[in-house]
Amino acid sequence: MAERVLRPAPLTAAAFAPFGDVLEATGAPDMVINAGRCGRFHDRARLDFGDGRAGLSLFRADACPLPHVFDLVERHPLGSQAFLPLSDDPFLVIVAEDADGQPGRPRAFLSAPGQGVNLLRGTWHGVLTPLVDATFAVLDRVGDGVNLQEHRYGTPWSVAPP
Amino acid sequence: MAERVLRPAPLTAAAFAPFGDVLEATGAPDMVINAGRCGRFHDRARLDFGDGRAGLSLFRADACPLPHVFDLVERHPLGSQAFLPLSDDPFLVIVAEDADGQPGRPRAFLSAPGQGVNLLRGTWHGVLTPLVDATFAVLDRVGDGVNLQEHRYGTPWSVAPP
Question: Which positions, given as ranges, span the membrane (chains A, B) (predicted)?
Answer without folding.
Answer: none
